[in-house]
Amino acid sequence: MTCLLRPQDPKFPEIPLPDGEVVTVGRGPLSKIKDSRCSRTQLEFRANYKTRKVSVKQVGPNESALNGTPIGIGIEEVGKENDSVDILFGEHRYKIVFEGLPPLESIPVKPAKIPKMFSSKDQFKKDGILPKVGEWKSKGDQLHIYTYGDIIRRAKANIAGFDMDGTIITTKSGKVFPKDDKDWRFLYNSTVQKLQTFFEDNDNFKFVIVTNQAGMANGKTSLEGMKKKVEAIVSQLGIPVVVYIIPGRNEYRKPVTGIWNLFVEEYNESVEPNPQESFFCGDAAGRKKDHSLSDRLFALNLGIGFKTPEEFFMGQKPQEFTMPLFQPRKLLDNPPSNDHIQYPDSQEMIIMVGFPGSGKSSFVKSQILTRSYVHVNRDTLKTAAKCLSVADEALKSGKSVVVDNTNPERKDRAEYIKLASKSKVPVRCFKMNITHNQALHNNRFRELSRENPGQGSVPAVAFNTFKSRLQEPTKDEGFTDVLLVNFVPTFSDDKKRELYGKYLLEK
Ligand SMILES: Nc1ncnc2c1ncn2[C@@H]1O[C@H](COP(=O)(O)OP(=O)(O)OP(=O)(O)O)[C@@H](O)[C@H]1O
């Protein structure tokens, strides 16, 4: 009669687990594992021959797994016959084997203790608070909302917000994106219990799930499939919740904070939750392995706490992360000036150079057109030929001209310089002094400031194209001067200023 760990790879030895004894498994002679990422004391096992269960506790810092699900440092899980244990997540797999024991059926089974949460879940049901399924509503194709249970019951509460994919659930298939609406499982074995316990113990918190679902906007995921999946997840959690699904590139999309304001208005009697207590938990946290930073930036934009799933569910310590290169708040707090730029009384041509969204048109409108320059802009004049003919006519009639296009290459600028020299008019170049990341931020700001946010954004590829085509402007092209134009933030109202100061990009 014995219990053992049987390695998937037969070149490693079996590891016996005597009844009731703690067996430490890690790098070393017992397992013959040499991998330095594996601690010498990676896992502690204790087999119970009576119940045929094996407790598995992760002691080492790198992730181990039970049945393919990470365990977490300091966490003890319970495995049974035929369960798999990865000494390191995805590597060094063993099977739990009980040999020479009577078949399981002949062991008398004690009735299972009803976990605390299920009794209260029944209580919720009796009170009519937790229905079988919740209710769906939508704001067009921009936002879908699922409410389950009486979320208003906990009036004026703090908010515990969670991302969904990669935080509460992951794919069953192990793929990055789910194959279909059934391809999901809870991220950790302990996810349901941890959430139930948290909301039982903290009844001054409301549970909100916020999930960006760009896949729905591009047709990769259907709304019906997504609805079924959310209903299944929520009914297994058994906790009153509001789930926000955000397919659009609108003001609800994390890290922009529109969804939080909506929640506070509709489900918290317009009372702002305490930022010290409220928090958001998500896996888009800017760590090396993360695809984005949007969950962390969402929390930062709201001024609330942030936790990764590893921190919330597994009690792990925070890991290093990288912040975005453009910090909008810093710019607003320390704005530069353009005092170095003067304008002559005589005729001239100014050629603008800058990323899309770098603020060329705003600058031209507020600083140059006010001085009666003729505006040459491809967006309004539509063709390059029309731009050149408008510039030529204006120069011939003695007017100053500003060419407000991106003009990345010498050849783009040369055509205008040729026109000006024909009319013997000096040409200056004004280059927008902003980074790629700030231009992307401006582009998103422009998109969100529109009446129909999410429409008419310049695609990211246009920024890369500008960058790769850019030839730095120099005087030898025929300019009398090349000046850098700083981005001096100016807003028509405080709401716009506040929006600009938030992190708007996902990384
Ligand atoms: N000085 C500024 N202060 C605050 N916001 C600004 C400023 N300049 C531009 N913006 C905002 O940045 C966004 C992009 O600006 P703008 O449209 O002027 O850029 P652009 O370089 O002309 O873009 P494109 O080449 O794509 O037409 C707009 O939403 C605009 O309101």
Percent of residues in beta strands? 15-25%
Q: Averaging pLDDT over every residue, what do you get?
A: 90
Estimated radius of gyration: 30 Å
Low-confidence spans:
106-120, 123-128
CATH topology of the largest domain, which one? Rossmann fold
The appropriate CATH architecture of the largest domain is 3-Layer(aba) Sandwich
Give the CATH class of the largest domain. Answer: Alpha Beta
Q: How many individual helices?
A: 15
- Our count of domains comes out at 3
Ligand catalogue = adenosine-5'-triphosphate
Structural class: alpha/beta
Q: Can you identify the CATH superfamily of the largest domain?
A: HAD superfamily/HAD-like
Major sheet, described briefly?
Answer: 7 strands, mixed
Distance between the termini: 56 Å
Strand order of the largest sheet: 11-12-17-16-13-18-19
Number of strands: 24
Q: Describe the oligomeric state of these chains in a short phrase.
A: single chain
